[in-house]
Amino acid sequence: MATWTDRAVGMGLVVFSILLFTYYSIWVIVLPFVNSDHAIHHYFLPREYSVILPVVAALVLVLFIGGFITVVLWKNKQKKKVQ
Amino acid sequence: MLFVSGIISIRFFHIFLSTFTMTKLMEWLLGLSLIGVLWSIVTFDLLDLRISDQYLQVAWPLPIYLLVAFGCYSLAVVGYRVATFNDCETAAKELQEQIQEAKRDLQKKGLHF
């Protein structure tokens, strides 16, 4: 048995990804076939955001990873200079 | 000059044809380009197929949708495996001993932590 924190984080990830997948699938695939005056459209942003948001999220992720690598290499260089 | 280069290129072409095996990379690229062509035909209306408006609205975000779906799947698999990974007591102990041994060995050789 993994520790309870591991299990909580793991199950949290699973639930989050299921929720995200469901919301995104309804947004992209189901909504075009629903009447434009149905109330459900209030819960979803305009359709353009279904493409813009993932692209922005991917960009943020790449920037974050790049920044992290930069910081680690920088710290490594500092340490080498001291030694 | 041109004649010789023509002969050489035909030779290479024949060798390529007779020894051609499709690598996994080429398979994936072929599959992806096929899907890309089909998607472009539907989205940019290249063949005048006159697809109904609702199906067009589903088609144009499809590549991003597939990427997001794949990302969700990967996240779920990682989360599930983190949650169900069993402790390995003996392996953990063994690993700690090896770490201590390596530290002592390196410190002897002059590396500072």
In short:
The complex is a heterodimer of chains A (83) and B (113). Chain A is mostly helical. Chain A is built from 2 helices and no strands.
Q: Could you please describe the fold and organization of this structure?
A:
The complex is a heterodimer of chains A (83) and B (113). Chain A is mostly helical and 83 residues long. Chain A has two helices and no strands. The termini of chain A are far apart. With 113 residues, chain B is mainly α. Chain B has helices at residues 2-18, 24-43, 53-59, 62-84, 89-108. The longest helix of chain B has 23 residues, at 62-84. The radius of gyration of chain B is 28 Å and the shape is flat. The interface between A and B is medium-sized, with 28 and 26 residues. Chain B: One of its GO terms (molecular function) is glycosyltransferase activity. Chain B: Stabilizer subunit of the dolichol-phosphate mannose (DPM) synthase complex; tethers catalytic subunit to the ER. Chain B: Keywords: Coiled coil, Endoplasmic reticulum, Glycosyltransferase, Membrane, Transferase, Transmembrane, Transmembrane helix.
Please name the two chains that share the biggest interface, counting residues whose Cβ lies under 8 Å from a Cβ on the partner chain.
A-B, 28 and 26 residues
Helix and strand succession of chain B?
A: HHHHH
Largest sheet of chain A: none
H/E topology pattern of chain A: HH
β-strand percent of chain A reads under 5%
**Helix count of chain A?**
2
Alpha-carbon Rg of chain A, integer: 21 Å
Could you tell me how far the N terminus lies from the C terminus of chain A, measured between alpha carbons in angstroms?
Answer: 43 Å
Query: Largest sheet of chain B, described in full?
Result: none
Topology, number of strands of chain B: 0
Helix/sheet category of chain A? mainly alpha
Family (chain B): Belongs to the DPM3 family.
Function (chain B): Stabilizer subunit of the dolichol-phosphate mannose (DPM) synthase complex; tethers catalytic subunit to the ER.
Subcellular location (chain B): Endoplasmic reticulum membrane
Pfam families (chain B): DPM3
